[in-house]
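Can't paste images in this forum, so I'm doing it all in text. The chain is below; anyone willing to post the predicted structure tokens underneath?
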Amino acid sequence: MASRSAPPAGGIDRAGSAHSARGVSRAGSAHRARGALAVLAGVLLLGGCTQAKAPGTGGDASSTSASASTSAPSSASTSAARPSATATAKGEPSLGGRCEDLLSVGAVNIALRRTVIGRTAFVLGVAEPDIGRLTYLNCRYGLSAPVKGKPAPQPQVEIGVSLYESAAQAARRVQATVENYRLNGAGDRPARVGSARGTMLSGYGLPTLVVADGPRTVAVTVTPKLLTPGSTAELASLAKAVLDATAGYTGVGPAASASPSGTG
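Text version of the structure:
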């Protein structure tokens, strides 16, 4: 039986881009390649739920990034996130800041009740009018140093969060992600994220939780070594922290902020 293609990194937000090639095995036959392309074509998803790159991480790489940044290894800082004035310019679509402003390593550690040590890599994405996406963030934590001649290191934690023109568009992106994971043999189960209803995905890459709340989608992916076996608590806590941190999003009309019935 042909092996499955790897899941898009960052869950929802990253499938469908050229970056997703890193999540697909190169050793397959032409038939497998066609299957992988079919999967990716059907998943132009969140961000976030991640998320494309290698199996199971949490971001949104389906569009060209406007800017990116990386940092040296960081330890368990617990400083509060600082809002970015430039990122919240009046009338400009924004999630309220960038990864380094909204989702510091310390904030991630607090949400997971774990310590994530390693490098970080942050991406601020540009709009994708064809799918109604206004902006997105891809935040990666716990990266090891790259080694020449070896595959790019995978993050211990990846977060993808996107802002869409409407809650309906956001909900569709999440649903498409869930369906894509199911097609690849993943299991799914409900997971509460504050007042929103998310979905825990496992069995296809790393454990991932995806959720839509109003016009935002979030995909969080975490290595199992930072999670309690069989529990969704850490992933749900991190997803809730992401929703709270991006609650000051701008650039979307009031009507677009209401979640459609049944999506949480």
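The CA atoms of residues 43 and 180 lie 6 Å apart. The beta strands are 65-74, 118-125, 133-143, 157-164, 187-193, 196-202, 208-213, 216-222.
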